[in-house]
Amino acid sequence: HMGTLADLNDHADRLVHAAALYKAGKAPVLLLTGGAAEDARTEAEQMKDILTVMGVPAASMILESGSRNTHDNAVYSAQILKSRGMRRILLVTSAYHMRRSVALFEAQGLEVVPSATDYQVLVVSETLPPWLPLVGNLSRTTTALHEIVGQVHHRAEAVIHHCEPSIGAEHAQAVRHVVERGIELAGKRSLAELRSQRLDENG
């Protein structure tokens, strides 16, 4: 069984933190949320495997395997929680991802208590000079851009939803398409500029 576990990535702190909350009696039930591409094992199933090894019993885990993004995480999780009479939750995710996650889960009518982990802060001094280009810095910048774009999209969607009764569903959908296309193009341009900058620095 051990050989079939999913590889742990940089966000594995989320699982360790969730297991710690369970064992401390602060989270008697863990809702694991995350889907997957077709024919692949879902993120929820992979998390369950790892948490089982950590000592969390299967009876204390609920799986939500249909979501593909944070918005879906919130929507589908809220449906499961409300069906079980649960409305107050400890929300575990990476610190940089918490602000957007809280907003999305609260929008579903849940009372959210943030329980962040996976802080992206150095606790020891850099071993290399700060002016030296590092792949890790590019990765963190990409993550930050992803969160910024996600927040912009969330706020834009809230405005569109508020205006939809006035402008009509068809016009609202057209605005959504323009916003999503603009965000997509802006994201591609930002990443291209970052890669170009890194190439210049290394060249």
Write up what this structure looks like.
By secondary structure, the chain is mainly α. The protein is built from six helices and four strands. It is 57% helix and 11% strand. Helix 4 links the parallel strand 3 (88-94) and strand 4 (111-117). The longest helix has 34 residues, at 169-202. The radius of gyration is 20 Å and the shape is globular. Mean pLDDT is 80; it is low at 197-203.
Helix proportion of residues, in percent? 55-70%
Annotation, overall tally of beta strands? 4
Looking at how many chains there are and whether they match, the oligomeric state comes to single chain
Structural class: mainly alpha
| Main beta-sheet annotation | 2 strands, parallel
Shape: globular
- Which H/E pattern describes the elements? HEHEHEHEHH
Terminal Cα separation, in Å? 46 Å
Mean pLDDT: 80
User: Strand order, biggest sheet?
Assistant: 1-2
> Poorly predicted ranges (pLDDT <50, ≥5 residues)?
197-203
Discrete helix count: 6
